[in-house]
Each structure stands twice: as structure tokens, then as C-alpha cells.
Write a structure and sequence with these properties.
two-stranded antiparallel ribbon, 7 helices, globular
Length: 147
């Protein structure tokens, strides 16, 4: 029986540790990510502001991909449903990962623990009702030619 010790990779594939060390391809499991990168890119493009929060992104994503939105909400739930990891958390994490990719439309998000004043701000009362946290990440689009 195969007992995998899983490691995630950026491409969304999961590998058995023995497959990595031995190069044995029979232990490799490849799966489709829940949300394709292209949908993240198109949603970022459709946000009109140069800087935005995950809540702004959610609105754009929901209007572009209503079926995917419903699927993610069914899987993760929304804030207020007594879940620690919600659709908001999932999308925020995906935006954070995407911001670190080469060629991303976003500037890399600075981790909260490094400098909360850089890419985070106090959330408004309305945002807190939809998001829960007193701090919210602000994602910034790259200017043309900005690295």
C-alpha cells in the first residue's frame, strides 16, 4: 500500500517524497487546481482600481465566474459561518501566491509579520463585517514597466 508524504508545489501537483527522491513517475499524482491562474489574472484585470483588497477582488471574480464562485463558497463557506478557512481566506492566499510569481500583474505582497504598515491597512467597519479581521491586505497592480 502506498502511504504518501505529500509536498505541494506551485503548479498544483502533489508528489510522494519517494517519487521525488527516486524519480519514480508511478507515484506522481497530478490534479487540477480549484481556481485556474487565468481566472485570477482576468479578475485582477477587471478590478478598476490600481490597489484593492480581497473583497474588491471577490466582487470582480463573482461577476466574471459565478459558477466557480458558487463552487468555492460551497467548499469553503463565507465569513460568519464559523469556519476558520473561508472563501475569502482562500482567495487572499491565492492572490498572495500569484503576486510572487514572475510576470504577475501584482506587486509582491509584503508579509504582515515583516511590515504591516506597507501592504496592510485597518479595515473599515463594513469590511470587518464581511472579512472579520481588523487588518486587511491591500494588493497593488504593477505600473507599466514596473518590476
Amino acid at each position: 500500500m502506498w502511504e504518501p508524504e505529500l509536498q505541494a508545489c506551485v503548479e498544483g501537483a502533489v508528489f510522494c517524497r519517494s517519487a521525488i527522491s527516486t524519480g519514480c513517475r508511478k507515484d506522481v499524482i497530478v490534479f487540477k487546481p480549484l481556481l485556474e491562474k487565468e481566472k485570477i489574472v482576468e479578475s485582477v484585470r477587471s478590478v478598476p482600481q490600481g490597489s484593492f483588497t480581497v473583497l474588491d477582488f471577490m466582487e470582480a471574480f463573482r461577476s466574471l465566474y459565478p459558477e466557480d464562485w458558487t463552487r468555492l463558497v460551497q467548499r469553503y463557506g463565507e465569513f460568519g459561518e464559523k469556519r476558520r478557512y473561508t472563501v475569502t481566506t482562500y482567495l487572499s492566499n491565492r492572490l498572495d501566491l500569484y503576486s510572487r510569481e514572475p510576470g504577475s500583474l501584482l506587486l509582491p505582497l509584503t508579509p504582515y509579520s515583516e511590515d504591516r504598515a506597507k501592504d496592510y491597512r485597518r479595515s473599515t467597519e463594513g469590511e470587518r463585517k464581511r472579512f472579520g479581521s481588523p487588518w486587511i491586505a491591500v494588493f497593488r497592480k504593477r505600473e507599466k514597466g514596473e518590476k
